[in-house]
Amino acid sequence: MNFDDKEISFASWSRRRFMQMSAATAVAANLGSLAHAEASGSATMIDVPFQKKDPRVVLIGTGGRGTNLLQNLLAADAQMVGLCDLVKEKAEHAASLVVAAGQKKPELYTDGPHDFEKMLSRQDVDLVVIATPWVWHTEMAIFGMKHGKDVALEVPGVTTIEDCWKIVKTSEETRKHCMMLENCCYGYNETLILRMVHAGKFGELLYGEGAYLHDLREELFSTAGEGLWRRAEHLKRDGNIYPTHGLGPVANYMGIQRGDRFGYIVSMSTPQRGLDAYRKEHLKADDPRMAEKYVTGDMNTSMIKTVNGLTITVKHAVANPHPYDRINLIAGTKGVFQDYPPRIYLDGQNSDESWEPIDKWKEYQHPLWKTEGEIAQKLGGHGGMDYIMLYRLLQCVREGLPPDIDVYDTAAWSSVAPLSVASVSHGSAPVEFPDFTRGKWKQRKVSAIATQV
Ligand SMILES: NC(=O)c1ccc[n+]([C@@H]2O[C@H](COP(=O)([O-])OP(=O)(O)OC[C@H]3O[C@@H](n4cnc5c(N)ncnc54)[C@H](O)[C@@H]3O)[C@@H](O)[C@H]2O)c1
């Protein structure tokens, strides 16, 4: 190719790029109407405490995750008064766990996909935990809030920008909370590093990275549990469809929605290859799953620029061989922490520019881990973080505190999935984040999880 050819090909590339950018502007404008949507005429839910009580809890979804949450809830003495699942045997098994914990058998709701409505219409229920497939999250959360229940919603929260606004609006109108159950925010390392960030150990923060790198191929093709619904998500969208495990802790370190907020996102994906390759090796040629067309790229890399200028990289890869990793990196003017394995490098601490283990920073261990760490680790759910999260949720309700992760966090963290999809589908163009707090992020305090108890 001679120089002129290069010029021509660059010109046609830029024309193509320009067309993509124009399309992206259209998308951004489209999202823009949602970006500036008035959530409701009602007051904010920022810093609004839970109504103080020992909550009566119900659970929708007694599958893999729901059962695990239930075991942790029971260990934290949650009063379980109702369980709902499409599959009666699963609900019965969950009920047996409640009885084994010394409580009365909770009422079961197993009469079809809308039986949760009967359970959530009860007057003697305060808090609903939702652990169902993603397509049900918004409907169940909204129904719960509209029927006077606080909501604890499994990750990845809700899946469209419209639904982000719907949960914000409903929370404000009903004065009920909608907390995302982002367990990774409650890990030992994450809570310790959060306290070090607040003690200024990393200086002024500059950038962070989070990821969900988890080989889910076997799970996605299993004929039980998540295999029944999660692979379908890979038929719908190309982007980071499960961003919050990596993102939540980094957002906490940076005080997102508390003096800063996500500004815009740029996202790109590799082609999809892993699920095709896996099924070729593991399924028979006439298996109906061989006809599925997966569109979610194997590795999605998104970059978020915050309004204050910080950057966050978020990755998602579940369809290739890879050791489990959430990266969990935070860096500032005085040092850097990165997980998997946990290691730290602080200015002036180490002469040979090598990482150090985090053990020597035990003094920053979170008070929740000091008091509850032993039981959390014995229970085991994701290294104990599941128990710490649920213990803390119950503590917030029992003591009448605001939730650590509120509806604005739930909406902002959830929004990364649809906004990354919008960016990918328009040539990785930048797409703006809505401000779900409508300006209130500016004067807001840091999350209580940073400083409590
Ligand atoms: N935070 C974490 O670490 C973590 C881990 C795993 C899963 N999850 C999340 O938990 C949720 C559930 O995942 P899972 O692994 O338990 O899946 P699962 O398939 O094992 O369980 C889902 C359950 O929901 C039930 N269900 C489906 N539709 C229903 C309806 N309309 N009414 C009542 N029950 C219904 C199913 O019968 C099933 O028992 C998902 O949002 C997933 O992303 C989070």
From TrEMBL:
Gfo/Idh/MocA-like oxidoreductase N-terminal domain segment(s): 56-180
Source taxon at top rank: Bacteria
Cofactor section: NAD(+)
Keywords (A to Z) from UniProt: Glycosidase, Hydrolase, NAD
Domain Glycosyl hydrolase 109 C-terminal: 193-357
EC number(s) per entry: 3.2.1.49
Protein name according to UniProt: Alpha-N-acetylgalactosaminidase
